[in-house]
Cell division protein ZapE (Paracoccus subflavus), 366 residues
Amino acid sequence: MGKVSDLYEQGVAEGRIRADQAQRDVLPHLDRVLDDMAAAPAPERRSAWRAFLGVGNPAPAGPEVRGLYLWGGVGRGKSMLMDLMAEAATVPVRRVHFHEFMQEIQAGLNRARQRGDQDTVRPVALEVAAQVRLLCFDEMQITDIADAMIVGRLFQVLLEQGVVIVTTSNRVPEDLYKHGLNRALFLPFIDLIRQRLEIVCLDSPVDHRQGRATGGQVWFCPADAQARTAMDTIWADLTAGAQAGPQRIEVGGRSFDLPLFADGVGRAGFWDLCGRPLGPADYLALSRTVRVLMIDGVPRLSASNYNEAKRFVTLIDALYEAKVRLIASAADQPEQLYNEGEGSFEFERTASRLREMQQAGWGRKT
């Protein structure tokens, strides 16, 4: 196994990483996971069918390798450290946003139900375990009851199969799915995290997403006539006279329309994307369709439009992970859009991401 700390110091020396003592303090914990994996024999791997039928030794060989739960405020470098972790690993590894991973799991559960499987979670977890030994999740957050009700069983099977889990989050484990429906059924998962993952806080006072050089203006507020004119000018420039029209986006046997699309650039009003019952799968499909997305009229968010605000958070997560360039007009600056009420804590991460997405050079390389 490589060393996360070596890759980190190399990045600092090359000027790609801004040195941060709080980040350096957690590097030994990341190195420890890889060292333990290198010292432990690889677990016995069975085919999904043999595992499902109970044929062979169900327990992984060798000592248990304890994973890692790295939490801290937004913009502290957790995602960057997760990238380094995946790069340093020499075992089969997957680095994936937690939201995207759970979408894949839910799709697998649907297939298992269609097969008539009584235990739908186990075969899906076994498929994952057959492909990776180290799972690196970025941004664990659980707001969907469908995810909350199966994630404990999913992790239990993965850990039984010897998969090592490393994850980042903005919250301590006890705050996951806070105030969620039927949360009592979720609490054993928190106990499982505490038992099987080392809990480490990245306690840096610096938000590394702030203070970066910005490129041309891509966030216009307030969303008035002047902002509309600026957005229209950018649209005309990006599409260069190409014929624009609605773009149908197919998602699992259904579809929704993006109001305007031309030459890889999409444009929609806030309510077109967040006022309709769209979900993570829809936004992931959208992020694969466009390289630039323009959103008009993002309002102030609060308890009065909580569902729309929640969809906006999910949309930004999908765009961020896919490196889609965002241009928007809004009622205020990102940090001032959602200042109080349920959901305001989660929006701190969204505001930080919106700031990062404004920096020069950010976005998908095409």
User: Anything to note?
Assistant: The chain has 14 helices and eleven strands. The chain has two domains: 4-201, 219-356.
